[in-house]
User: Which sequence fits this backbone?
């Protein structure tokens, strides 16, 4: 199952905050083990606290989730968002790897992993690019993968590659939407003059 992720390389929590309800529906309809009370209450409370900008209370609520559900994809998604919000990139990378292990057919985990790998102590732009490139074949209909590859290539001054990936993202996700994302993303600033003419 392919996810239509809606965040770019510079806005990690837009994905969680705007799409959490859709992700919950998709996880439950994908025959994934549902969270039951009280764990659903703790998860919902944690999401609410994060939306209010209170990461401390969000983490407290996540700690109350029962041990058997700590690796549930929704719990991991929220943990990743907290790690990213707090710029704990090594922790975010480890959490993203757990998301991939539990939901390998969901593009979000792979995107989270590349995003964190770019910023982790042992990572970097080159490693994020090398990690995400083969994932593009696994999720050929996910525009954010192609978009983020364009960002990574652009930052590595591989401008022809960046143009190719941005073209691919536009083909998948729509030219108007990808153009707007590109003009809002500092990673693609070297191509802004070209993109504005499109």
Assistant:
């Amino acid at each position: 199952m392919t996810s239509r992720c809606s965040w770019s390389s510079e806005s990690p929590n837009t994905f969680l905050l705007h799409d959490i309800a859709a992700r919950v529906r998709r996880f439950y309809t994908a025959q994934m083990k549902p969270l039951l009370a009280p764990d659903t209450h703790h998860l919902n409370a944690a999401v609410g606290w994060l939306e209010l900008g209170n990461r401390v209370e969000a983490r407290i609520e996540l700690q109350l989730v029962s041990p058997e559900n700590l690796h549930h994809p929704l719990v991991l998604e929220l943990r990743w968002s907290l790690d990213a919000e707090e710029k704990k990139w090594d922790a975010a990378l480890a959490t993203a790897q757990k998301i991939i292990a539990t939901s390998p057919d969901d593009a979000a985990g792979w995107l989270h992993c590349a995003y964190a790998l770019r910023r982790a102590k042992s990572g970097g732009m080159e490693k994020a690019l090398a990690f995400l490139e083969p994932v593009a074949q696994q999720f050929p209909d996910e525009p954010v993968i192609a978009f983020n590859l364009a960002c990574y290539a652009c930052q590595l001054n591989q401008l022809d590659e960046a143009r190719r990936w941005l073209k691919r993202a536009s083909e998948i996700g729509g030219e108007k939407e990808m153009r707007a994302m590109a003009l809002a993303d500092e990673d693609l600033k070297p191509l802004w003059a070209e993109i504005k003419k499109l």
Summary: The longest helix spans residues 12-29. The CA atoms of residues 170 and 176 lie 8 Å apart. Residues 1-108 form one domain. Confidence is low (pLDDT under 50) at residues 1-18.
